[in-house]
Amino acid sequence: MEPNNKKIAIGWFSFSCCEDSTIVFTELMNDHWQEWKHIFDFRHVKVLKTHNIMDAFDIAFIEGAIASPEHVEKLKHIRSISKKLVAIGACAVTGGPSAQRNNFNDEQKANIAFLVERFGALPEVLKVSDVVTVDASVPGCPMNTDIFLKAVTALIAEFRPDLATPPVSN
Amino acid sequence: MHTFDLSMEHITKIEGDASIAVKVENDKVTDVKFQTVEYKRFFTEAMKGKALMAIPAHLARICGTCSNAHIMAAIEACEDALDITPSEQTDVLRALTMHGLTVRDHALHLYLFSLPDVYGKDAFLDLDENIPEEHQILHDGFEIKAAGNFLATLVAGRSVHAQYPTIGGFLHFPDKAGIDEAVAKLAAVRPAALRLIKIFQDQPFHFDRKMHFQALIPDGNFGYIKGSIRTSRGEVFPEKEYRNLLEHVVLPYSQASAYQYKGESYFVGSLARLNIAKDKLHPKTKESIPDTLALFPSTDVFHNNLAQAVEILHSIDEAIELLTTRTFVHEPLIKKPARDAVGIGVVEAPRGTLYHKIVLSADGTIKEGEVIVPTGQNQINIEQDVGKLVENLIAGGMEKEKMPMEMEKLIRAYDPCMSCAAHFLKVKWA
Predict the structure, then answer these.
(1) Which of A50, A52, A68, A88 would you mutate first to test chain B, the one with the most B CBs within 10 A?
(2) Residues in chain A within 8 Å Cβ distance of B158
(3) Across the interface, do B160 and A30 touch by the CB < 8 Å criterion?
(4) Does B92 fall in a domain?
(5) Is B50 an 8 Å CB contact of chain A?
(6) Residue B421: per-residue pLDDT
(7) Contact A30 B146 (CB under 8 A)
(8) What local confidence, expressed as pLDDT, does residue B254 receive?
(9) Model ipTM?
(10) Domain membership flag for residue B352
């Protein structure tokens, strides 16, 4: 990679989930905001800003499971404009608990069938790697912060080796 | 005369994903739809057949930011069904869990979501570190959040999806070193909480409307778990009657189901709590901000932000008092056998009254359950207010392109939570 001084462009996207990892991300900012503010271009982070830009990302963080055809299309688009894609939290990495309806018994499935159909949801909820290639995964419900920070440190080292610091844990 | 449609697919800087659509014909708003664009995750259906012990952690996953409030409501419902009365120490630890949640969740909303509007910025991080006032606010915001996060982590294990609180008590107890550190961190951010109150007292946005309020109000000090339901009409009801107070309505102009009381909409959240019970705030809080508290009761929706800032100060003062006057010892969990019973849990989540109901079988599994979230109760108010706001803006001559920003500001003042709301919004059957 050519040396550059550009900030690392990141996107943070939430699909079907409780957004617990988004909250944990904002809590990690308590300790890391000064560092991240200088390293990251928060290009599309809806929880932080109104004017979000969807053009190209160095890193896309994907939280949540994939529950509809629109989700599939949006995720594929994000993948196509992102150099690295990181699955964040249990729903993105394994599908659940958002995918809990996949394991419902017949009676439960019958009870929710009209809602699945009416909202145009997928027959089964998918994990992120069912739809696109995933470069790194951060499991946990909410995401494991040590694994997240290690992944972030490794990605910073890749995109901006001049800014790389030894791995930190929170 | 103006006729147009105005819609925003993804409202920013709120919890979760929501859209708003407004129809205007001849300068009059004819339709407003405020709704989640999230997909249902079927938590109440998934409850059926689960073991009672799994229910608090299960229902916590309805919402990341409100998770510890869901855990408290679920534990209360499960204990009600089992006829367990928690120990006095458990009550204190639960109160502290809610204070930690209130500090970090209100700080997230006020600094990261609402404060950029006050300063005309796109994002909190756009505040300028080279301007002393903005530098101070940046540091205040993250330090208050960190103090609340530390308190929640010390007492409950995590600030999101806490592991220590459980049916019958706690699985872990705070140690002396942790308590001392929490007290030091909370005391250190108290001046920041006072600065935050001043910012939201002086901010320029106002939207006054006649409205009713409801909140769970304790008999003793201001808090978020125990008490009776009180309304701005002066009525008092026990927790168990809460469900009977809510009239479930399907809005004629929306796909959402929502709630009314006595045929009228009402407001839940910080503003409701302060309007009904400001006299119960911690004595130190009352002593520090008499001019602020004189503004309540208020019917200005933007005073919900100010009320949240006041609650941060109260939770800091109350938590410091509890942590410095109590000792915490290891206590075994209170256990009772399962039985056929209905359990009700009501708490004040940061955004307002949260209701959980479970129907327990004697074999220890759940037959069914119900969850009613604050945003579902504020739904009608939000839609009515956005409609009125747009008519006001048209009358004031504002061009259509500038209206979405104003709509977002007002919606943010309600602090809606769409992760929770995705749980309640239902399709209208026409």
Answers:
(1) A50
(2) 142
(3) no
(4) yes
(5) no
(6) 78
(7) yes
(8) 47
(9) 0.92
(10) yes
pLDDT of amino acid B35: 81
- Residue B427 pLDDT: 38
Please check whether residue B343 is in contact with residue B79, taking contact to mean a CB–CB distance below 8 angstroms: yes
- Report the number of distinct structural domains present in chain B: 1
Cβ-based contacts of A46 with chain B (< 8 Å) = 10, 12-13, 17
* A44 touches B: beta carbon within 8 Å: no
Low-confidence residues of chain B: pLDDT under 50: 253-255, 425-430
Q: Which of B15, B48, B408 sits opposite A19 (nearest CB)?
A: B15
The correct answer on CATH 3.40.190.10 for the domain covering A8-161 is no
Residue B17 lies in a domain: no
Domains of chain A, by residue range, sit at: 8-161
Q: Which chain B positions have a beta carbon within 8 Å of A68's beta carbon?
A: 39
CA distance B409 to B334: 46
Residue A65 to chain B, least CA–CA distance (Å): 10
- The secondary element (H helix, E strand) that includes residue B74 is helix B67-82
> Across-strand partners of B345?
B356
User: Is A146 in the B-facing interface, judged by CB distances under 8 Å?
Assistant: no
Task: For residue B351, tell me if it sits in a domain.
Answer: yes
Looking at the complex, does the CB of residue B163 fall below 8 Å from at least one CB of chain A? no
Which range marks the domain in which residue B274 is found? 43-424
- In the prediction, which pLDDT does B177 show? 97
A54 three-state secondary structure: coil
Q: Which of A22, A27, A101 sits opposite B149 (nearest CB)?
A: A27
| Nearest beta carbon to residue A18 from set B10, B61, B145 | B61
Flag whether residue A19 sits within 8 Å of chain B, measured between CB atoms: yes
At residue B251, the pLDDT reads 56
The model carries a pTM of 0.95
Burial B229-244 (b: 16+ CB within 10 A, else e): bbbbeeeeeebeebee
**pLDDT at residue A105, rounded to an integer:** 95
Which phi-psi region, left, alpha or beta, contains residue B184 (left: φ > 0; alpha: ψ -120 to 50)?
A: alpha
Ranges of chain A with pLDDT below 50: 1, 170
Helix B374-395, helix B403-414: angle, nearest 10? 150
Query: Angle at the Cα of B224 (from B43 to B52), degrees rounded to 5?
Result: 35
Touching A: B residues 184-223, CB under 8 Å = none
- Please state, in angstroms and rounded to a whole number, the distance separating the CA atoms of residues B208 and B299: 6
Number of Cβ pairs < 8 A linking chain A and chain B: 130
Would the CA dihedral through B136, B138, B144, B149 be positive or negative?
negative
CA distance B126 to chain A (A): 9
Per-residue exposure over B34-73, b if at least 16 CB sit within 10 Å of its own CB, e if not:
bbbbbbbbbbbbbbbebebeebbbbbbbbbbbbbbbbbbb
Helices (H), B367-402: 374-395
Please name the residue of chain B whose CA is at the shortest distance from the CA of residue A20: B64
Helix (H, G, I), strand (E, B) or coil at A48: coil
Cα–Cα dist A137/A125, whole Å: 18
